[in-house]
Design brief:
Largest sheet of chain B: 6 strands, mixed
CATH superfamily of one domain in chain B: P-loop containing nucleotide triphosphate hydrolases
Largest sheet of chain A: none
Radius of gyration of chain B: 19 Å
Helix content of chain A: over 70%
Oligomer: heterodimer
Order of helices and strands of chain A: HHHHHHHHH
Radius of gyration of chain A: 24 Å
CATH architecture of one domain in chain B: 3-Layer(aba) Sandwich
Number of helices of chain A: 9
Distance between the termini of chain B: 45 Å
Largest interface: A-B, 13 and 22 residues
Strand content of chain A: under 5%
Chain lengths: 280, 281
């Protein structure tokens, strides 16, 4: 079929934009994505910079530290312990083929401290706290509590968002240390009680193989993850629309996007940190 | 000391130099949300001591207008002056001090459900780090004003809808704001509770002479507000004698985003506008 040159009105593609079902959603999704990234960047920057100007809500910081830090200890401790145990189980099975079961401790400690400890803790805390922040702030939005707060002369960014971000950053740091410690302990328990290997050898290898760059790498990541969890959770919570259904949607978006961002940023950080501290 | 009026209320003091400046002034304000304009070219003002009742059917933009007054929303075009300052383009940080001078009662109360009634009412005072003893001594009279002294330690979840509105009113009143904004304070309430709420608003209007904007779609509440005064000697609301009404309580009416009426109760009931007639009937 031929169309006259210049007569785009006759072409099905141009005739009616509404008919062009394949391209319109893509265009719309792309615009929404760009808008969301732009809004999130401004939001995250403003929340961070609020720490440098008055008023600061230290009591809210302490309350949030308790909710995020103390409240997440049990899940972080358990997930760390069993992850270390699984690592020991899996690695011992593979390493035994090469007669290298003695290095199980080294394998577990380095893997936990450099990678699994920060990432798993980040994802566990994101599941618990990004969802809680999004649903709490989302409920406040739909019941006009955020507007009420603004009408009472209080900035919700300073009062609700900034304390959550700094509480999450500082608490995730300590939670990661706890996860690392219990991961190594879990690996030790499996090594001794299930694999029937020497516990002293496991722990001495775990300790001896660690270098400062490993620890730095493991403790830098939770600072970024903490920032991501709280900022994404609060961002989706505060842009909730559509009543209780919208709160549910915001909660899902907060957990999914913070988890994906944690893994993405972990990859980028690992790349940078490996370049800064190359393995021996 | 000012002489008491017939109703026992003190007469307003002599007008000051700024008494003529409107507390709120809208000039050609329009706003839309991804569709046709919610408010289109709206202009009105609120004078000191004046109570303006904003009427209109549900979904016509009354709450939007009220949020514009407090800077919670920004107009697409036009000028909004609050206490003489242009707020349409004012940065959010500069709006907070102005909002501290206003009191707003939201449609469903918008109480903070994680805080007790005491902490809700004292929210602004707590943020200002006022000592606890002083806070308590100010919260109790505020709760007493709305007849809810016994709810001091309770949480919003254990209050009825009417009680929540009254706590929200106490929260709005506690700092003696220079402007009060009521967003459908009686919406969804039974007639007895609605009358209690209207009585509180009349009391605040007549005792403190605070200018206000009240949004409602309930004509009976609007007329009651206009035709009653608060008698301090009886501590209750009584009707004006001989069908009189409060001259400082006037009406605005919105329809399809446009302000179609601005005037007194007399003008309202004698309006020839077909929509106003239909709304009144």
């Amino acid at each position: 079929m031929r169309y006259p040159v210049g007569d785009t009105g006759a072409l099905p593609f141009f005739r009616n934009p509404a008919q062009n079902m394949a391209t319109i959603p893509i265009e719309r999704i792309a615009k929404q994505l760009v808008h969301t990234i732009q809004d999130y960047s401004l939001f995250a920057w403003r929340a961070f910079m609020n720490l440098y100007t008055e008023p600061r809500y230290w009591s809210d910081y302490l309350i949030q530290s308790d909710i995020i830090g103390v409240g997440s200890t049990a899940i972080v401790l358990l997930s760390g312990f069993f992850t270390g145990g699984v690592l020991a189980l899996q690695s011992a099975a593979t390493l035994s083929q090469f007669g290298a079961t003695a290095v199980t401790g080294q394998f577990v400690s380095i893997t936990m401290i450099r990678e699994l400890g920060p990432v798993l803790t980040g994802i566990m805390v994101a599941g618990r706290n990004a969802s809680s922040m999004a649903s709490e702030l989302g409920s406040m939005v739909v019941t006009e509590q955020i507007d009420a707060m603004r009408a009472l002369g209080v900035d919700p960014m300073r009062k609700l968002v900034t304390p959550r971000i700094f509480a999450c950053i500082s608490m995730l740091f300590f939670l990661t240390v706890v996860a690392d410690a219990f991961g190594i302990l879990g690996g030790g328990a499996v090594t001794v009680f299930l694999n029937h290997q020497n516990g002293t050898q496991y722990f001495s290898k775990a300790w001896e193989s660690l270098r400062y760059p490993d620890i730095i790498q493991g403790l830098v990541k939770p600072l970024f993850s903490g920032y991501i969890i709280a900022s994404v959770g609060c961002f989706y919570g505060l842009r909730t629309t559509g009543g209780t259904q919208g709160v549910g949607r915001s909660t899902i978006q907060a957990v999914v996007n913070s988890s994906v961002l944690i893994i993405l940023v972990d990859f980028l950080l690992t790349r940078v940190l490996l370049a800064l501290f190359p393995p021996l | 000391m000012s002489a008491p009026t017939a109703s026992g209320l003190p007469a307003p003091g002599p007008p000051g130099p700024d008494d003529k400046t409107p507390v709120v002034a809208f000039r050609n304000v329009s706003i839309s949300f991804a569709g046709p304009p919610v408010l289109d070219d709206v202009s009105f003002s609120v004078a000191p001591g004046e109570t303006r009742i904003l009427l209109g059917p549900a979904g016509v933009g009354k709450s939007v207008l009220l949020k514009l007054v407090d800077g919670l929303l920004r107009p697409d075009s036009g000028s909004i002056r609050l206490f003489g300052e242009e707020i349409a383009t004012m940065p959010e940080q500069k709006l907070f001090p102005l909002r501290m001078r206003t009191g707003m009662v939201f449609q469903e109360g918008a109480l903070f459900d994680s805080l007790s009634v005491r902490d809700n009412v004292a929210y602004q005072l707590i943020q200002e780090r006022i000592p606890d003893d002083e806070i308590d001594s100010r919260v109790r009279p505020a709760l007493s004003f709305v007849g809810l002294e016994d709810t001091f330690s309770m949480f919003p979840a254990s209050l009825s809808g009417g009680m929540r509105r009254r706590v929200a009113i106490a929260r709005a009143f506690i700092r003696h704001p220079e402007l009060l904004l009521y967003d459908s304070p009686t919406g969804g309430l039974d007639p007895v509770t609605s009358t209690t709420i209207i009585e509180l608003i009349v009391k605040e209007r007549d005792v403190h002479r605070t200018p206000s904007i009240l949004v409602t779609h309930r004509l009976q509440d609007a007329f009651m507000l206009c035709t009653h005064e608060f008698a301090t000697e009886y501590n209750c609301m009584i009707p004006f004698p001989n069908g009189q009404y409060d001259p400082n309580t006037t009406f605005l009416m919105l329809n399809e985003g446009r302000l179609i009426f601005d005037g007194s109760l007399h003008d309202l009931v004698h309006s020839s506008d077909p929509f106003v007639r239909e709304f009144l009937e």
